[in-house]
Amino acid sequence: MGSRIEWVGESCGLLGAIGAELEVTRPFAGRRIGTGIHLEPKTVALLLTLRRGGAEVTATGNLGTTQAEAVDYLRAHGITVVGGPTTDPAEHDAFLREVLAAEPDLLLDNGGDLFIRYLDAPYEHLLGGTEETTSGRMRLEPRRAEIRRPVLVINDSPIKQFAENKHAVGQSVLESFLRITNRSTNGLRVAVFGYGACGKGVAQNFARACADVAVVDIDPVLRLEACLDGFAVPSRAEALAGAELVMTVTGAQRVVTAGDLPSLRDGVVLANGGHFPTEITVDEIVADGSVHEVRDSAQGIETVVLADGRRVHILTHGFMVNLNGPRPLGNSIGSMDLGFALQARCLEAVAVGQVGATDCVVPVPRRIDQQVAEAYLTLRDQAPGATRPA
Ligand SMILES: NC(=O)c1ccc[n+]([C@@H]2O[C@H](COP(=O)([O-])OP(=O)(O)OC[C@H]3O[C@@H](n4cnc5c(N)ncnc54)[C@H](O)[C@@H]3O)[C@@H](O)[C@H]2O)c1
User: Fold this and answer.
1) Cβ distance 160 to 139 under 8 Å?
2) What is the pTM of this model?
3) 153 by DSSP, 3-state: which?
4) Ligand 1 atom with least separation from CA of 200
5) Residue 135 predicted with pLDDT over 90
6) Fold of the CATH domain 166-323
């Protein structure tokens, strides 16, 4: 049987076309790119594309999401991978520092992990790089004056917002709930915490799967938007008390904590789609004084039994639900192909000096968004056998 990594690679049409071009233009020749991004089949396609452009790549994963098969595949294809799967923050920290010890010329960061550590031991020849996420942007913004290099934030591209955060995260979080729990969504009372791009997609996908969806957001403007989009917007307390599934997708910390245990209904499922495993304070919850027993109910499902008999089921220990549990697939290939096309083009722009020190922690330049959008639409219409509507 063929490898899923190859299936994914072949399905990344945009990256394939960019890779063919970069093999000729070689913008990364003589450069090392250090990466700290989830190591799974779609990032394999991105890292191999960068290599086609002449880069030496030193990679490590993010906390809790590295797939061993992806690591083996990358190593077999000339990428230096530091470490392997881990959920231990100290071990992960050591892997990130080892990537930086190679003094890469460019950093491809996810969550700000590399740039923040770079500032502990800066070196002059770093050209800059990219940051994939909202969470990373929030960490790096206050440190702009120290970074003083171009850092393009992929998350702030409108393409990333609607293609990945909204549509793809919504689909894959729904798929992950079904995959891990095998429970029905019909009539399920779902409370979605966070109505940013990701939360919108999660709310919309569960609603389309016939769930009864309520939205909680600390920002009244977003609660209004959710309301006008047709969702219930109860108070936080009401939402928690009524929910059969609580989904956090905020990018914030301590969104659901042990302090909420008294208000949860029996059998509630808690899951997180946000970047860091700190939105639901799982370690604090399982250690709470009101807990009678904690057991593994099924792969990816931990059940906390409270002293009063209520059960709270936690998916994938609060790590991103769509990249964990049995056979995690993550976001759809098409959405990641678009997002990673932005990554490749942004790293190219930094490598060849098209952006400067004032472009530090800024959105993707508009011309790159337009270039990637045009390429996607052209590829879609020009595939052999594709027909345009008359
Ligand atoms: N799982 C994935 O594949 C995936 C993909 C992309 C992004 N993400 C992550 O998802 C998270 C959300 O991303 P986004 O782009 O939607 O961010 P966003 O900033 O657009 O939206 C977050 C929303 O959460 C709200 N919020 C913050 N704290 C809250 C709280 N305590 N209770 C309720 N609402 C609160 C904010 O007001 C905001 O509206 C980030 O951590 C991001 O890195 C995950």
Assistant:
1) no
2) 0.84
3) strand
4) 16
5) no
6) Rossmann fold (3.40.50)
